[in-house]
Amino acid sequence: MLRGSVWLDPDWTIFRDHFPGQPLLPAVYFAEMGAQMAGALWAAHAGFASSTPLQLVEIKKFRVRQPAFPGQKLQIIARLIAAWPELATFQVQIFRDETSLAEGEIIMANTKAAK
User: Fewer CB near the last or first residue (10 Å), C or N of the chain?
Assistant: First the structure.
């Protein structure tokens, strides 16, 4: 398991357009945060460099339960479910304090191993 956090900087450009006057984090960013954490976990678990190119292959059963807003701090948790040299599956969760905001399954490919 790997745990990390991110502070949603109110000055991020994305908050100007999504949505003006009532900004919130676009749902796709939850999946991206989970994929980034999953990739870091896989690199640590498998012993390859963090710069190894990984590809997001699939997002499964991903649910956004609550929105996230500028100025909030989120916690991201990734758990390795299964791994092979070229592919790995992860369970990811995003929280604000104790509140679950999003969760799902992420499948990543190690593009270097696939060659």
Answer: C
Q: Rounded to whole angstroms, how far apart are CA atoms 31 and 61?
A: 11
What distance in Å separates the CA atoms of residue 28 and residue 56, rounded to the nearest whole number?
Answer: 13
pLDDT digits (tens, 9 = 90+) for 49-97: 878 889 999 999 999 999 999 999 999 999 999 999 899 999 999 999 9
Inter-residue contact 30 to 92 (CB < 8 Å): no
Q: Residue 9 is encoded by which pair of tokens?
A: 């900087």
Instruction: Tell me which DSSP letter residue 19 carries.
Output: S
How far apart (Å, rounded) are the C-alpha atoms in residues 21 and 58?
Answer: 33
**Fold classification of 2-110 (topology level):** Thiol Ester Dehydrase; Chain A (3.10.129)
Query: Which helix or strand (DSSP H or E) is residue 43 part of?
Result: helix 27-46
